[in-house]
């Protein structure tokens, strides 16, 4: 069974997701023996999974970014070739805190933070997804992201950086877009660039990237 990596910092969302997985399965929460998962903890887990069990087994390792590098390396083989009825579920608040080899062996599940039982909306991301990436509008939506000062421009750039950073694994255009936004963000810090023109330049660059056929 493909290991899952839940990326979220919302405990309630994680618990709700885990409870849905538990149905008719043997569930075991693996806790580190110290403040972080050690190589000994992983060795014990490996031994346990080798023992036959008729039911599907789910091993839950919360906050797996709190693990030593040797522990992560020791876990790689088991993640790559788990027993047929064993499901590993890891959680982290940021997948970049784990070894890339760990992340590559899992299916990433990103859980959105809810507010008042509704998914929190991000208007900047909505504009990027709808009007820039999917070209729902007829032109580049420059007027929808207006800013009057450097601080508000940097907030917009930060949200775009986080958005495209999350898309690095799934979108071939994200690396070059992210590189350009980081460059402009740095220039905005060090030079007297016009905040609105900087944001406009980012939107135009992203627009052009999604106009190009790969």
Briefly say what this structure is.
With 214 residues, the protein is of the alpha/beta class. It contains eight helices and seven strands, in the order βαβαβαβαβββαααα.
CATH superfamily label of the largest domain: P-loop containing nucleotide triphosphate hydrolases
3D shape: elongated
Q: Which residues form runs of ≥5 with pLDDT under 50? A: 114-120
Supply the CATH class of the largest domain: Alpha Beta
Structural class: alpha/beta
Under the CATH scheme, the architecture of the largest domain is 3-Layer(aba) Sandwich
Integer tally of domains: 2
List the SSEs and their pairings.
Layout: E1 4-7, H1 11-21, E2 26-29, H2 39-49, E3 57-61, H3 69-80, E4 86-92, H4 100-104, E5 107-110, E6 114-115, E7 118-119, H5 123-133, H6 150-166, H7 174-190, H8 195-211
Parallel strand pairs: 1-4, 1-5, 2-3, 3-4
Antiparallel strand pairs: 6-7
Helix pairs in contact: 2-3, 6-7, 6-8, 7-8
Describe the fold and architecture.
- There is one protein chain.
- The chain has 214 residues and is of the alpha/beta class.
- It folds into two domains: 4-115, P-loop containing nucleotide triphosphate hydrolases (Rossmann fold, 3-Layer(aba) Sandwich), CATH 3.40.50.300; 121-211.
- The protein has eight helices and seven strands.
- The strands form two sheets. Strands 2-3-4-1-5 form a five-stranded parallel sheet, with no helix packed on it. Strands 6-7 form a two-stranded antiparallel sheet.
- Strand 6 (114-115) and strand 7 form a beta hairpin.
- Helix 6 (150-166) runs antiparallel to helix 7, helix 6 (150-166) runs parallel beside helix 8 (195-211) and helix 7 (174-190) packs antiparallel against helix 8 (195-211).
- The longest helix is centred in the last third of the chain and has 17 residues, at 150-166.
- The protein starts with a strand and ends with a helix.
């Amino acid at each position: 069974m493909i290991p899952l990596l839940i990326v979220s910092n919302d405990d309630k969302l994680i618990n709700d997701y885990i409870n849905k997985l538990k149905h008719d399965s043997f569930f075991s929460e693996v806790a580190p023996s110290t403040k972080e998962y050690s190589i000994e903890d992983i060795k014990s887990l490996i031994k346990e999974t080798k023992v036959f069990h008729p039911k599907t087994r789910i091993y839950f390792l919360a906050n797996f970014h709190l693990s030593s590098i040797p522990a992560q390396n020791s876990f790689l083989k088991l993640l790559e070739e788990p027993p047929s009825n064993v499901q590993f579920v890891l959680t982290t608040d940021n997948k970049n805190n784990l070894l890339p080899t760990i992340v590559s062996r899992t299916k990433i599940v990103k859980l959105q933070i809810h507010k008042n039982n509704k998914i929190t909306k991000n208007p900047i991301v909505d504009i990027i997804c709808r009007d820039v990436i999917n070209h729902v509008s007829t032109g580049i939506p420059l007027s929808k992201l207006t800013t009057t000062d450097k601080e508000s421009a940097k907030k917009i750039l930060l949200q775009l950086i986080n958005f495209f950073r999350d898309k690095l694994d799934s979108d071939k255009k994200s690396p070059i877009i992210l590189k350009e936004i980081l460059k402009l963000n740095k220039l905005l810090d060090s030079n007297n660039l016009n905040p609105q023109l900087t944001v406009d330049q980012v939107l135009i660059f992203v627009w052009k990237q999604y106009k190009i056929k790969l």
